Amino acid sequence: MAKDQEFPEILSKQESVNIQKAEPGAPPSDPKPAATVLLVRALENEIEVFMIKRNAKTNFGGAWVFPGGKLDPVDEEIEINSFCSGLTDEMASQILNVKSGGLNYWIACIRECFEECGVLLAYRENGDLFGASDEEETEILASYRDKLNRGEPVLLELCKQLNLKLAVDRLAYVSHWITPKMEMKRYSTRFFIALAPSDQKAIHDGSEGVESTWITPENAIKGGEEGKFPIILPTIRNLEAIVGFSSTDDLLENKVKCQSEVSSIEPKFFMKDGKMIGLLPGDEGYEDH
To answer: Which residues have a Cβ under 8 Å from the Cβ of 247 and sit 6 or more positions away?
Structure first.
């Protein structure tokens, strides 16, 4: 857990990030369900994670983040559950400790990953992992990615046209962060991790994401500490959780085992003696604010 004295330093490193604060005295907004994916790959004896720099005009603009976003109605369509492989809504809901609708987060992760970096986590009709495509299929994928980025609910249509099943069984649930009440836009974000298919290329969309890179978690954290690679607290903590692994197999095996142990984290910020103080669950005084 972070100690309260760490927060001013973290906040000072985020001055270049466009964090939209709530109006003073305004009631906090309700957090919207969201999903984010840490897409990882192995490079020799190191793990790299794919990260996107957000457009400066958007919320968290200027920050480096993982692909993700809020849940859309298309993620909640009952029919799309039958196009998911290896995990049912009942199983997913049990992992998240919710009554129902848990699978929606896995679906949203796959949709956002395809929208924001062009990687589609899916299986072909014969059970093979979806990978390199011919020219015709590439054009179909580009068309559907454009439609999704325009807000059109076409994920189910894409699955039907290419006879695909979403590879929800390749995602492991790793953390749950709730945006602090001090921010204008709040999210209840479930973070997942997935191994990137070796024959698909990840690239930012050029709209919400203006740059992208594969980077080791160690280098991302170091860049954040030096102020050269702006990252926010949930990103930092999720990067720290994948430090020290040299194999994606070991990393994913570890995270799959820990899925049921994930607890919710909502940072709390307040002023004390003229300084911004932040606390996380378990920190002394957290329950008093």
So the answer is: 42, 47
Report, as ranges of residue numbers, the positions in the chain whose pLDDT lies below 50: 1-5, 7-9, 11-12
Q: 64 phi and psi, to 5 degrees? A: -90, 125
Q: Tokens for 65?
A: 């983040």
Question: % helix / strand / coil in the chain, to the nearest 5?
Answer: 35, 25, 40
What is the number of structural domains in the chain? Answer: 1
Q: With respect to residue 269, please indicate whether it lies within any of the assigned structural domains.
A: no
What CA–CA distance (Å, rounded) separates 158 from 141?
Answer: 8
Rounded (10°) angle between helices 233-240 and 217-225: 140
> Measured between alpha carbons, how far is residue 215 from residues 39, 146, 175 in Å?
11, 26, 20
Closest CA to 267 of 175, 174, 181: 181
Distance separating the N- and C-terminal Cα atoms of the chain: 17
CA 217 to chain centre: 15
CATH code, domain carrying 128: 3.90.79.10
Considering the entire predicted model, what is its pTM? 0.90
Distance of CA 225 to the CA centre of its chain: 21
Q: How many angstroms separate the CA atoms of 58 and 55, rounded?
A: 6
Digit-coded pLDDT (tens) for 124-146: 999 999 987 788 999 999 999 99
Length of the chain: 289
Q: What are 123's two structure tokens?
A: 């299986």
Domain enclosing residue 203, as ranges: 26-264
